[in-house]
Amino acid sequence: MVHTKKIIKETFWEILEEKPYNKITVQDIVNRCQVNRNTFYYHFQDIPTLMIDSIEDWMADVIQKYGTLESPADCLTYMAQECMKRKKAFLHLFRSVQKDIFLSRLNEMGYDIIRTYVDRIEEYEQISKEEKEVLLKSYKCIFVGSLLDWLVLVVSHHHQ
């Protein structure tokens, strides 16, 4: 069962690399996976549910596998490298009606990566919880903003 769910998610990412989010159908997914519609609906309520679950899995994987980063710039570089692996898929999500969900999850991922970095640095242990939270949110905004600027550049370049 878990294997089938994973295959459906991987297939969703593959198709999302090929065409816009709003053009993806359950039929596209089940045809490529070679499973029936009931199997899809056993695991997911609909495509938006599949999209959210897929993004959350991707985020968890990105956060889990990144090791020790030496600086905030390393955090940004790491996030950008991970986003590049699914550039077309992210472009399609960024331009879709699900943009808000995608952006929300990207913000969560950025915050988690920065928090993990800051929690390891001794100099940040001496600041108050409130100051640390301001620092975390500031870094997150810079990082996610930089990634979004990059996406917009890619989108505008893609349309030329």
Task: Give a short synopsis of this structure.
The protein has 160 residues and is an all-alpha fold.
User: Count of helical segments?
Assistant: 8
Tell me about the largest β-sheet.
Answer: none
CATH superfamily annotation: Tetracycline Repressor, domain 2
What fold name goes in the CATH topology slot? Tetracycline Repressor, domain 2
Shape: elongated
Structural class based on helices, strands and sheet pairing: mainly alpha
CATH secondary-structure class: Mainly Alpha
Order of helices and strands: HHHHHHHH
Explained architecture:
There is one protein chain. The protein has 160 residues and is mostly helical. It has a single domain, classed as Tetracycline Repressor, domain 2 (Orthogonal Bundle), CATH 1.10.357.10. The protein contains 8 helices and no strands. The protein has helices at residues 2-18, 26-33, 37-43, 47-65, 72-84, 87-94, 99-120, 129-158. Helix 1 (2-18) packs across helix 2 (26-33) and helix 7 packs across helix 8 (129-158). The chain is elongated and about 55 Å long. The protein starts with a helix and ends with a helix.
Keywords:
160 residues; mainly alpha; Tetracycline Repressor, domain 2
Helix-strand blueprint:
Blueprint: H1 2-18, H2 26-33, H3 37-43, H4 47-65, H5 72-84, H6 87-94, H7 99-120, H8 129-158
